[in-house]
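New here. Your pick:
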Amino acid sequence: MLEEEVEEKRVFKIPVGPQHPALKEFENFTFTVDGEKVIDVDFRIGYTHRGIEKLAESKTYIQNLYLCERICGICSAAHQGCYAQTVEELAGITAPPRGVYIRTLIWELERIHSHLLWLGVAAHEIGFDTLFMLIWRDREVVMSLLEMISGNRVNYAMSTVGGVRRDISDELKHKILKGLDVLEERTKYYKEVCMKEQTILARAANVGILSKEKTLKLNAVGPTARASGVDVDIRRDDPYGAYDEVPFEVIVYDTCDVLARILVRVDETIQSILMSRWILENLPSGEIRTKFARKIAENEVLGRVEAPRGELLYYIKSNGTDKPERLKVRTPTLANLLPVAEMLKGGYIADIPIVLAGIDPCFACMDRALFIDENSEKTWVWDKEQLRIYSIKWYKEHGKEVVRERWKQ
């Protein structure tokens, strides 16, 4: 066999998904590999589209608080809080200081929860299940604190338009402070483990490289960007909530690899613990919410927050009724999708799970659907029944051909 033919046969495509071992959500990646090395990445999104933006147009501003909260379970407070403060700006109202402080506290406790959950998942992806179980054991502490405040371990339903729904008593404040002491001690220990344990260093250092130049070019956000030397954080750069008063440090690493993404999140967890403690010790007195007129005059506002995964955008347009005319959400995972494809190139097949997990993806909150006629550039949306009829018709016309092509590959 000629040498050129041998070289050509080494390059082939590996489909990973839509159901695949690295993630718990549906998404499809196609990896072009040369031997064990990944040379190109293609992805197909949209498997978990739920139609939430369209559904929001038929719900009131208050009802949408609980709909937006369910876009993402781990970032539920970020979604609900971003929606609430965007509606507040739309309606021209301001939440009282105590309500703003409590909302900010929930955001930071959620960041602790999210980062600890992710750190455990990262340990699991590299086969370090002992660390995974230890971290998830300690994660229960912050989940218990959130349950004491809100009554819920996930989807806290704390933010409302005009403030928050529940207050924090002095007795509860002391319990939260004790829990934060435990979390700080354990998180500092996990940072030491991440910096010294050979299991982590061998699988994370110099893996999934994304240079600072590529990070800026591809517009990565959140810990993904900060792990590549990009000093950006919406909490500092465009303050909202109580972030213009709460002291904190933006964590930046410049090694541009999975290890940096781990350390950024560990250090951010420690910062969130310090911030939560400061908020509780400086909690202002007074009301926790203000009244809100259900109908909002015609207006449009773009709001944003620094969710645990990065910059989260909410666009809301009002039309004089008690329901929004349009709600549009841009989640951090969508912004980090092109960057993660770049990280995977040049790496090994065995590193795919940890590199993908490195952006802390949430495909359920990212996916959207839109029909586009390429010839006329016309766009439209369908309801569930129209989509069902179309899918049956399409499969009858093209299904067998698609199956044959996949078998050939």
Notes: The chain is about 50% helix and 15% strand. The chain has a mean pLDDT of 88.
